[in-house]
Specification:
With 343 residues, the protein is mainly beta. Helices cover 5% and strands 41% of the residues. The protein has a single domain, classed as Beta-galactosidase, Chain A, domain 5.
């Protein structure tokens, strides 16, 4: 495995791993973030060219997200017999992605480990007791592994000295065309999910789990994403796309939870996870999109597979639990396997 390091600005580093097949993974200690996933000359994910751009334009893209991915209504939750109040976004009145700035703007410690079949960048940080209102000193580790058989693996661990909430994810966006000016509408998606969580207008889950059958959100048979974008489905209309938790029919790293195929059929990314749900977001940015690599990002220019416990679990027990007991290790792993035909 070839390993290179260089400055990424803001006193952070860009670490690039390249396997024997020519698949390269670039990550940075700013936000324990994926910056690039490249097959030969084709970029497969959205990203910027410097740390400064992430901080100025969108610090969530590609980042490790925490302490809690998604929104917490009014930033309030109950744990045991105590109510906690988090920092909230003044525009919405809710907490988003653990309140900001959080994991996505921290400079993480990192080290690199090499084995014969894979290389791993291990990122670590601590979220102190009381940060944004969360209880407990939380130690977090995020491992990015690139294997020789074209798997990018993300493993996240956490341990706290007090009861707290922990529901991390990775906020990578895929666009398998390699062209950020192209929408993902002609990408083919398959998703192993029979139910999703409807949202209110303010993106807070209603608490229901609704069947995808007979809706545009049914990807149990693979189809192109334009079938959603051109539909008149009420949940799509609220956000001009998908921004919803999908509950997985099966979990485990030996099961495929989702796959995405490029419009030309040359690239397929398969997702496997031990998490119970995936938040799919289709970059519903409208005309207000950032510039990437000298080009303007398209509306619907990317898609996320945010593997996690469904947002809303802090108030809807049927969604699962994001409560973490003291001195108990939380661990979750997601794998992205890249199958590619020669360019």
């Amino acid at each position: 495995m070839n390993i290179t390091k260089k400055s990424f600005g803001k006193d952070v580093q860009l670490i690039t791993l390249t396997n024997k097949n020519g698949l390269s993974l670039s990550v940075t200690d700013l936000g324990a973030r994926i910056v690039s996933l490249r097959w030969q000359d084709r970029e497969l994910v959205l990203g910027f060219d410097s740390a400064e751009e992430y901080l100025q334009k969108d610090s969530f893209i590609g980042a490790s997200i925490g302490r809690t991915a998604g929104r917490i209504e009014e930033g309030r939750f109950i744990l045991g017999d105590q109510t906690y109040q988090l920092d909230v976004d003044p525009a919405t009145g809710h907490s988003l992605h653990g309140s900001s700035p959080s994991f996505e703007e921290k400079i993480w410690h990192y080290e690199i480990t090499e084995e014969e079949q894979e290389t791993t960048v291990i990122f670590t940080t601590t979220s102190p007791d009381g940060e944004h209102g969360f209880p407990g000193n939380l130690k977090v580790e995020v491992r990015y592994t690139l294997t020789q058989d074209n798997i990018w693996k993300v493993t996240t661990k956490g341990i706290s000295d007090q009861s707290t909430l922990f529901n991390p994810t990775n906020h990578v966006y895929f666009n398998l065309s390699g062209d950020v000016t192209q929408s993902i509408d002609q990408h083919t998606l398959w998703l192993n999910s029979a139910t999703f969580a409807p949202l209110r207008e303010d993106s807070i889950p209603t608490g229901e789990q609704v069947a995808v059958q007979d809706t545009p959100f049914d990807f149990q048979t693979p189809k192109t994403l334009d079938t959603v974008f051109t539909s008149d489905f009420d949940q799509k209309n609220l956000f001009d796309g998908i921004d919803h938790p999908f509950f997985l029919n099966e979990t485990g790293l030996d099961r495929t939870a989702a796959y995405l195929i490029s419009p030309d059929g040359k690239i397929k990314v398969s997702v496997a996870t031990d998490a119970p749900s995936i938040v799919v977001f289709t970059a519903n940015f409208g005309e207000d999109t950032p510039e990437m690599h000298g080009a303007r990002l398209s509306h619907h220019g990317g898609i996320t597979f945010e593997t996690q416990i469904a947002p809303g679990a802090e108030q809807f027990p049927s969604f699962g639990t994001m409560a973490l007991a003291p001195e108990t290790v939380f661990e979750t792993t997601t794998e992205f396997k890249i199958d590619a035909r020669e360019e």
